[in-house]
Automatic annotation (TrEMBL):
GO MF annotation terms: DNA-binding transcription factor activity; transcription cis-regulatory region binding
Pfam families hit by this protein: AraC_binding (PF02311), HTH_18 (PF12833)
Identification of the protein by name: L-rhamnose operon transcriptional activator
Gene that specifies this protein: rhaR
UniProt-listed InterPro entries: AraC-bd (IPR003313), Homeodomain-like_sf (IPR009057), HTH_AraC (IPR018060), HTH_AraC-typ_CS (IPR018062), RhaR_RhaS-like_N (IPR047220), RmlC-like_jellyroll (IPR014710), RmlC_Cupin_sf (IPR011051), Tscrpt_reg_AraC-type_HTH (IPR020449)
């Protein structure tokens, strides 16, 4: 019978006040054992060398390597030679990662969604590799974040959240600047996702997204579906429904106006799609959320 992989619980690693960000420094990283967790991690390699294993695959690590681990992905470190790293534990469901124009950054989608999904296929070659200047700037953000979390002064939640968003945005920008060929491939899909996030209220066709990606139609669809677990057009509809639900909760605009605001040209089609995704009509949803 295969051995169960332990899952690290939020209650054991996060502060009792429930704030969804923790900074853990490992200098050096000690043997831990293969594990999963109920949260996500940003891992920043700050020194030494080692091997990152995921249960099936293993990847060499060097200073500057930066990557994201989802909670359901088992992992561990082996063959550590003075390996030091910083883990930023966070619960993505409790952070405002849709704030501002973060979702419009192709590097954000590449680093936080696409690279983890394609890690096995790319053999970790599409990871973010920070240069020395980028690593120094990253560590400045981490230090500011760590200080806020340690002191927990009045207003620390706001300051820590803003610093975390600055860090995430900076790393996303670093990914956009990468010259790694495998990373560039992920950025093509990420550009299409970013286009949807920025322009969901306008007409967008599959041909538009294929052109933005610079890939063949067949390869784009296969890669997008393999990463996002849905088709490009279904993803576009999901984004539109998500924004429509926000407007239904927060405004008194008519359902027809909201349908047009988020990119639907037919309010009846909008209502059908809304019910398909959320199990309620727009009118029922608004009534339930008020």
């Amino acid at each position: 019978m295969p051995e169960m992989i332990p899952t690290l619980k939020k209650e054991d690693w996060f502060h009792p006040d429930g704030f969804p960000i923790v900074v853990e420094r490992r200098d050096p990283q000690e043997p831990f054992g293969l594990h999963c967790h109920e949260f996500a991690e940003i891992v920043i390699i700050t020194g030494g060398k080692g091997v990152h294993i995921t249960g099936e695959d293993s990847y060499e690590l060097v200073t500057g390597d930066t990557f994201v681990i989802g909670g359901d992905r088992p992992h561990d470190y082996l063959n550590m030679d003075q390996l030091s790293l910083i883990n930023i534990l966070f619960d993505p469901l409790e952070l405002p990662l849709s704030i501002g124009d973060l979702q419009s950054l192709s590097g954000y989608h590449a680093l936080f969604t696409l690279e983890p999904a394609w890690r096995k296929r790319h053999q970790f070659t599409s990871r973010l590799q920070l240069n020395p200047a980028e690593l120094i700037e990253t560590l400045r953000y981490v230090e500011s974040l760590d200080q806020e979390l340690k002191q927990r002064s009045a207003g620390f939640r706001t300051m820590a959240t803003l610093t975390m968003l600055q860090l995430v945005t900076f790393l996303s920008r670093c990914y956009i600047r990468t010259r790694n060929p495998e990373s560039k491939k992920l950025l093509r899909i990420a550009e299409a996702i970013s286009h949807i996030q920025r322009h969901f209220d306008r007409p967008i066709s599959l041909d538009d997204l294929v052109e933005i990606s610079g890939m063949s139609r067949r390869n784009f669809i296969r890669t997008f579906e393999g990463t996002m677990e849905t088709s490009p057009i279904k993803y576009l509809i999901q984004v539109r429904i998500q924004e429509a639900s926000r407007l239904l909760r927060s405004t008194d605009r008519s359902i027809t106006d909201i349908a047009f605001d988020v990119g639907f040209s037919d309010s009846n089609y909008f209502s059908r799609q809304f019910r398909t995704h959320l199990g309620l009509s727009p009118r029922e949803y608004r009534k339930q959320m008020r």
